[in-house]
């Protein structure tokens, strides 16, 4: 018997992304916080212990679960090389032009032998309501007499209430990370979509190097 092909979206529990908030099909919400890294090897032994103890204390104060995810991808060096080549062509000083060419050759040879990776660190913050949110359940059909406008207004109010509590959790995470010397920021809608695009397209390299 032939199996019917199923769309990829059926296996993804995400319903939509609104205002940087991930709305799951079961009514739960998720937020993604981007955090920078701290190189402990550059710190003294005392500073290392202090940072670790501070992070341990931060985790122990949380009364809700979080997920820490690391995204590692190979950096695409080609846009940077193209930028250098264009600058080399525009260079009128022979010595600087030669030095730029040698630098381009060095970068190209180096990246062919060594994989340059970029890492992003994310903290996924959840909020799941215990209240039954099903729209098609038997109790919902029996007792709900709201029209479509009332249902839409109630759904919007429910979303705002849950997002407000999610925002409080985001604030707790950001403050806790700041005490550990870690800068962080909650991602917006475009950034969240980009994160999931990279998750489902692991074969692609990272974007161009910032040159500003």
What would the principal axes of the Cα set say about the shape? extended
Mean pLDDT: 82
Number-wise, the strands total: 6
Order of helices and strands: EEEHEHHEHHEH
Point out poorly predicted stretches: 131-139, 208-212
Work out the helicity level.
40-55%
Measure the end-to-end span. 57 Å
User: Number of folding domains?
Assistant: 2
Number of helices in the DSSP assignment: 6
Radius of gyration: 24 Å
Q: In percent, how much strand structure appears in the residues?
A: 15-25%
SS class: alpha+beta
Largest sheet: 6 strands, antiparallel
What's the SSE blueprint?
Elements: E1 14-18, E2 21-24, E3 29-35, H1 45-61, E4 67-74, H2 78-90, H3 94-113, E5 117-127, H4 138-143, H5 148-179, E6 184-186, H6 189-200
List keywords for this structure.
alpha+beta; 2 domains; six-stranded antiparallel sheet; 47% helix
Task: Walk me through what this model shows.
The chain has 212 residues and is α+β, with helices and mostly antiparallel strands. The protein has 2 domains: 15-73 and 118-200, no CATH class; 78-115. Helices cover 47% and strands 18% of the residues.
Quick gist of this model?
By secondary structure, the chain is α+β, with helices and mostly antiparallel strands.
